[in-house]
Each structure stands twice: as structure tokens, then as C-alpha cells.
Amino acid sequence: MEQYKRMALFAEVVTAGSLSSAARKLGMTPSAVSQHLRALEADLGLSLLHRSTRKLTLTEAGARYFEGCAAMVAAARSAEQALARHRDEPQGELRIAAPIGFGGMLAQALAPLQQYPKLSLCLLVDDAVVDLIDERIDIALRVGNLPDSSLVARRLGSLPAQLCAAPSYLHQHGWPQQPQDLAQHVWLGTTSVRHLQLSGPGQSHVDMKMPVRIKATQVTALHALCVAGWGLSIAVSKDDHNALTNGSLVPVLPDWKLPDLVLHAVTPRRDEQPAKVRHALALLAEYVANFAV
């Protein structure tokens, strides 16, 4: 390693044209620079420079050696510049995993990344939990409580949750007036039981478990079933909230609130993140902060 340092020093001396100029640029004394050059020549068994009081002149061996030393320094600077660009400007492939219902959110939240021509995007949208290391995932979106792991989780924010149904369903089956009425309705979900924790007027709380009659493995399918009038569901995704806005879905028990769902961005590394990951995390956090029903 010391040899490489002396090679870089030799290249700097030749480029600068004198020991003193090179010493000033390197933050060293001329005598220290001269000492390193003598040590380099001793290791090589060849003279690299003709020294005089007025100038330095390369020997034939020095001229040949300088080409390699200069190429080494140029390669090192090129590597540093590449790392700087990697650190400061998003580039390369950004791989993000998310549940299916968040595909639209990612498309909107990450839209500003289009301005970076050296960046490509790969979205792995699946409700199954993927292995971040095996799939080379940079960021994975996870909802709810996270199990302990060696992965790094960053809280992006929370998503509002709302009991909802299609007007056609409520017209046929009636409007629930109290939480206890929910037991008489058809429930949609991804599991066999829908767990509800409701907070209502006067700081009242109700904890209920509802059997799910209609199940689907994907939130997009649940959204479609709810809009089609199959039963009650919990609005979480952007599609759900858009439907609440345009009237395709309506709130059920609007005075009773469900706890917000916490959204995390999980990454496989703890050290400094590349620019592509930092930019994506900032955009996702901004989007979640502005998410509204």
C-alpha cells in the first residue's frame, strides 16, 4: 500500500514540475517528498528523475514508469468521481417491493425520480413478503407492526383507515348505527377474522372480532368486491380513499375511528445509503405525510 502512495506522489511531482510545487499541493515539506522519491527509487532499483537546482527531468525509466503511475492516479480519481455521483445523484437500478395495493401510490410518490436519466426503476408488487437480500431489494414497504430482524426499518408515517361499504350494499342490508350492528353484516378481508379496534364518542372503545365471509389474497380484489357491493371492508389504499371521495364507497360508522396503519420502509443496510435510496425514502415520506382521505 505504501508503494501505491509513493507512485501517486511521483506522478504528482512530475505533473507539478518541481518538488516544492508538489509539496505545496500535497501538504508536505519538500524534504519529505524527496525522501519518499528516494525510497521509491531504492525499491525499484532505478533512477526515475534527474535532479538539478533548476528543474527535474525524467529518466527513460522514469518516463515509462510515469505512464503507469499517471494511469493509476487517473483510475483512482475516476473511481472517486463515480462514487460521488452514486452518492449525490440517483443512478443505477432502484428495486422496491410493496404490497399490490400500493402500486399506484409508488407511481405517484416516485414520479419526481423521472428527472434522473441514469436511474432505472423495478417495482416488485406482491402481497407476499419477499427476501430483501435474495431479491436485491433496496426498499420494501411494510404495513403494521414489524417482527424483530436485522433489517433497518424507517417509519414513513401512518395511513388513515375507515370502515366503508358501497351504497348499494347499505341500501340492501341497512346502515349500522352502533358497533354491535357490525356483527350482522358481511365482511370482506384477507384472513378468516377481521379484528376491529374502534374509538368512539366520549373516549369509548370497542374491540371486536368479525368472521370474514368473503376473502381475497389481494387488496385490489377486496377493493373491487367492496365497490361491487359484496360487503363491508376497511379503506386503506389510495384506491379506497379515491372511491370514498367520488362516492363509490361511503363511510360506515363515521363517528367511530379505527387506528391508523403505520407504514414502514425497510432497507437491508445500516450504513450510508446511495442517493437513489435517499431520494426515494424522502419522496415516500412526503407522500405519506400528505396522504388524505
Explain how this protein is built:
The longest helix is centred in the N-terminal third of the chain and has 29 residues. It is built from 9 helices and 14 strands. A 5-stranded mixed beta sheet has the order 4-3-5-14-6, with helices on one face. Strands 12-7-13 form a 3-stranded antiparallel beta sheet. With 293 residues, the protein is α/β, with parallel strands linked by helices. The chain has 3 domains: 85 residues, Orthogonal Bundle (Arc Repressor Mutant, subunit A); 92 residues, 3-Layer(aba) Sandwich (D-Maltodextrin-Binding Protein, domain 2); 98 residues, D-Maltodextrin-Binding Protein, domain 2 (3-Layer(aba) Sandwich), CATH 3.40.190.290. The protein is 39% helix and 24% strand.
Class of the largest domain, according to the CATH hierarchy? Alpha Beta
Specify the structural class: alpha/beta
Number of spatially distinct domains:
3
Poorly predicted segments: none
Mean pLDDT: 86
CATH architecture of the largest domain: 3-Layer(aba) Sandwich
Could you describe the largest sheet, including whether it forms a barrel? 5 strands, mixed
CATH fold category name of the largest domain: D-Maltodextrin-Binding Protein, domain 2
Question: What is the helical fraction, as a range of percent?
Answer: 25-40%
Quaternary state of this entry equals single chain
Distance between the termini: 60 Å
Globally, the shape reads rod-shaped
Number of separate strands: 14
Instruction: Please tally the helical runs, counting DSSP H or I stretches of 4 or more residues.
Output: 9
Order of secondary-structure elements: HHHEEHEHEEEEHEEEEHEHEEH
Q: Order the strands across the largest sheet as they lie in space.
A: 4-3-5-14-6
Query: What percent strand?
Result: 15-25%
